[in-house]
Amino acid sequence: MLYSPENFDLLKIFLEQTPQAIAMVDRQMRYLFASRQWLRDCGFDDRDGNPHSPDSQAVESILGRSHYEILPQFISTQPTIQNPEEAGVRDSAISLESWKEVQAVCLAGGVQSWEEEFGADGDRQSRVKWDVHPWKTQTGEIGGLLLLRETTGRTPGKGDPLNPLTAKVGSNSHRRSRSDESDLRRQSQILVELARSKTQNEGNLEAAIAEITEAAANTLAVERVGVWLYDNNQTEITCINLYERTERLHSSGSLLLTAPYPQYFQSLETERAISVDHAITDPRTRDLADTYLIPLGITSKLDAPIRIGGKIVGIVCCEHRGISRRWKLGERNFAASIADYTALALETHDRIKTQTELESANDQLQAVLDAVPGSISWFSSDLVYLGVNGYLAKTFNANPETFLGKKIGFLQGSPKFNHLVPEFFDNPAKEAQHEIEMSVRGVNRHFLVVSHKYQQGQAAVFIGFDITDRKAAEAALQKANEELESRVAERTKDLTEAIDQLQEEIRTRSLLEETRDVLEFSINNAADSVFWLTPDGRFFYVNDAACITLNYSRKELLSLSVHDINPDLPAEVWAEYWEEIKEFGSVRLECHHRSKDNQSFPVEITINYFQIKGKEYNCIFARDITETKRVETELQRAKATAEAANLAKSAFFANMSHELRTPLTTIISYSDLLQEDAKELGVSNRAFFGDLQQINKAGKDLLVAIDDILDYSKIELGRMQLDVECFEIGEAIAIIMAEIEHKLITNKNTLTMGGDAEWGTICSDRHKLHQVLWHLLDNASKFTENGAIALEITRENTPDFRVLNAASKFHKPELEATEEWAVFRVRDNGIGMTPEQIQELFEPFSQMHTSDTHHATGTGLGLAVSRSLCQLMGGDLFVESHLGVGSTFTVYLPANLPLSALNTEAIKQKLTPKFPRPLPLDHDNSWTEGEGWVFDDE
C-alpha cells in the first residue's frame, strides 16, 4: 500500500507513541522520524536506564543519517527473501547494492517483505522481519520508505557481540502478554486512524475533539473521556467536550476553579500523564473527591496534560467508574498520545482560523486597493506582474486577471513605465518617486508614480496617481499669476465699488431695523397670540396678546415652554411634532391652552417652521375659538334635529306609500275589468280602449314609483330584510324578459344576451335581483331609441374591493372572502351621460335633465334603490358612460349568500337545474335555438 499522510504532525506523534518499531526515511534512506520502540530496540534509550525517554543527543545523531550507516550489520548477512521475483534479489549475501535495488523497487510503488537471521559465526540466535512500504508526499510524489521491524526467536543477553539492534532486543527484559500486545496494536491502530482522519485536518475543532474523546473512551474502555481547557489566567478550566461511553452522549460546558485543587494541577505540570488507580485516596486527586469524584462515581483517573509550545493549555481526562482500575504502561502512553493529538487539533483549528482570517484580510486589502483612486501594480524582480488593482485594470479597459504572470511591456502606450520598473529594481534605493507621461486610450495622461520594494527587494509595488488635472491646474495657476498684476487696478476699482455697496447696506440695515421695530409693534398689538419657539419648545418671543390671554407677564411667559401652556403638546411628543412641522412647513390644528389660573380654553393654532442664519424656529399664531366651538355645538344639535326629522319623513313616506297602494291597486284592477267588460260587450271605440289602457299604465307606473319610495324608506329606516334562496339565473331572467318586452318594442330597440355559456345557480334575494335588473333594462330602453341593448351574465373571482367598498353603504367585511361572484352588465348605445350627471346619478329624487323632453325621467329613485339593494345583498352597482356613446351598468353580487332559514325546503326543491344554458325568446314568447334574445317591432 502507499502511505499518504495528510498531516505530518499527527504522523510524528504516532511514530513517537506507537509500541511498534517503525522508522521513516526519505528517498536517499536518510532518517526523518523513528518510533520510540525503534530507538529502544536500536539501543538509543536513556543512559540512566529509563526505557521511556530516549537520549536526545542519540536521537539527533540518528536523524538525517543514512539507514546504511545506522545498521551496517544488515549489509553482510544472509536474507530470506519472501518475494524474490518482485524484489529482484537472489539468495546471496545482501549488499549495499541489493539494499538500493530494494529501495528502487519500493520507490517505484512496490512493497517488500522478508526475514533475516542473525548470530555470531553462523550461530543463528534471532530473526528479524522486515516490511518496507513507500509513502507519498502532500504533492502526490513518493517521498521515501516506511520501515517496520519485528524481532522473533531467542535473543542473546547484554554483551552479546551482535549489532546494537539485536543487543538491545536481547537486553529488553519486558515481555508483554498476548492481551497487552493486542491492546497495543489496537491503540496503535486508533492512533493511525486519527492521524489519517480528515476531521483532524479540516479545522472543525468541535468535530475533531468529539472524534478524539470517543476514540479514547472506546479504546481504553472507560466510562468518561473529557477535554478541558484553561482560561487565559489558568484560574479556571472548562470542559469543551465530554463523551460518556454508556450513553454515547457528548456534552460540554462544565467548569472547575483551579485554586481549590493545587495538588492535582501541580502533578500535571511535572508529569506527562498521571495514572491514579485509587482516585479518592491518591494525594494527587484527593482534593477532587468530595466535589467531583464521589458525586460522579469516579474511582480511577488517567489524565494527560495538553501542551502547546511547552505550555499546558488543558487536560485530557480518562475517568473510570466501578472497581478501581490499574492502568498499564501502554494505556498511559496512549493517553499521552491522545493529549498530543488534542494539542495538534487545537493548533490545526487555530492555524486554519488564522489562515481564514488572513484570507479575509487579503480580500479586504484587495477591496481597499480596488477603491483607491490610483493605479496600483505589483512586480517580481524578474519584471512579471504579480497583481493589479481594479482602478488600473479599468484605466486600461482590461480584466485584473489578464495581468497575472504577464511580462511588463505587454500593454501598449507605456514605454516610459516599462523602463522605470527595471531601473527601480536595479537601483539599491528602497523607495522612489517619478513623474511620467503615458498614453491611455489614445489620450496622453500625466502620472506621479510612487514605488516601494518589499520581500528583500524581490518584489515591488508601484502606485500611479493621475495628475493630469493637477498639471493643468498648475498651468492655469501660472497663467492666473501672470494675469494677476494686470487685474490689480480692476480690483481696486471693484473695492471702491464694494465700499459704496457697503455704505448702501448700512443704510438698508438701518431701514431694516426700523422695519423690525414697526413689525414688533404690529405683532404686539395683534389680536391673536404670537409665540416664537426654539427646537426644545422654549419661548424666546411672545406678543402682548399672548400675555393678556394667558394672564402671564412677558418675563414669566418667556421662562416657560410650550408644554406649560399647551397640555396637548407634552414634552414626550414634541420632537415628533417638530419633525412633522419641519417636513410640512406649516401645520394648522385645534388644541387647548392653559392660563396662569389653570383655566383651559380651546384655541386654533397655526405653526410655521422657518430658519434664520442656520437656526431653526417655529412661529405659532393662536386664536381663542371658545365662541366658535359654542356655535359648532349648536349646529350639531340642529343637525341631529334635522336628521331626526328626515327619519320621520322616511317613516311618513313609508306609511303614506302603504296607504296609497290600496286605492291604487283598486284603480288598476278596475281598469283591467273595464277592458275585459268592453271586449265582452263588443265596444269598438279605439279611443275608449286607449283611455282605459292609459289609466291602467299610469296606475302601474305610479305603483312602481310608490314601491320605490317604500323600498327607499325601508332602506333608510334599516327595515329592509333579505329573503335568500337558491334559484336558476336563467329562470329569473326569462321572467324579466317577458315583462320588459313591450318597453323594448315601444322604442324599437333590440336586446341580445351574452356572457358565459351556462349561468348556473345563485343564492340571493330573487325579488330584489328581479327589481334591480328590471330597473336597469327599463332605463336602457327609456334612453335608447332604435338602438341595441345587451345583457351579459358571467361568473368572476373576487372584484377589487378597494373600488367596490368606496361607496358601499351596506358593506359586510365577512363577504370579502367570497370567491365566486355573479356579474350582470347592461350595455346600451343610447344618449349617454356627462361626468356631472354621473356624479348625481345614484342620489335619491335626482332626475336626469336632457334636451329631449319626451324622455320620461320618473321619480329619480329607481337607480338609488337599485344600488342600495345591491349593497344590501353584499355587492354593488357601478356605471360607465360617455355622452352620445352609451352607458354600461355593472352589478356585482356574491353567488352564494347565506340561506334564509325559512327558505330551506323551497331551495331544496329548486336545486335541479331547469335551464342548462340561456335560450332565445321569440316574439311570441316561445323558446327556440339561437344566440340570445332579440326583440324588434316587426
Automatic annotation (TrEMBL):
Enzyme Commission code(s) on record: 2.7.13.3
Region (Disordered): 153-186
Pfam families: GAF, HATPase_c, HisKA, PAS_9
Annotated GO MF terms: ATP binding
Top EC class for this record: transferase
InterPro entries reported for this sequence: GAF, GAF-like_dom_sf, HATPase_C_sf, HATPase_dom, His_kinase_dom, HisK_dim/P_dom, HisK_dim/P_sf, PAS
Protein name, entry field: histidine kinase
Keywords for the protein's UniProt record, in alphabetical order: ATP-binding, Coiled coil, Kinase, Nucleotide-binding, Phosphoprotein, Transferase, Two-component regulatory system
Source species taxonomy: Bacteria, Bacillati, Cyanobacteriota, Cyanophyceae, Oscillatoriophycideae
Gene3D superfamilies: 1.10.287.130, 3.30.450.40, Histidine kinase-like ATPase, C-terminal domain, PAS domain
Domain called Histidine kinase: residue spans: 655-897
Organism (species): Laspinema olomoucense D3b
Start and end residues of each PAS domain: 515-559
Kinase as UniProt keyword: yes
Family matches, as SMART domains: GAF (SM00065), HATPase_c (SM00387), HisKA (SM00388), PAS (SM00091)
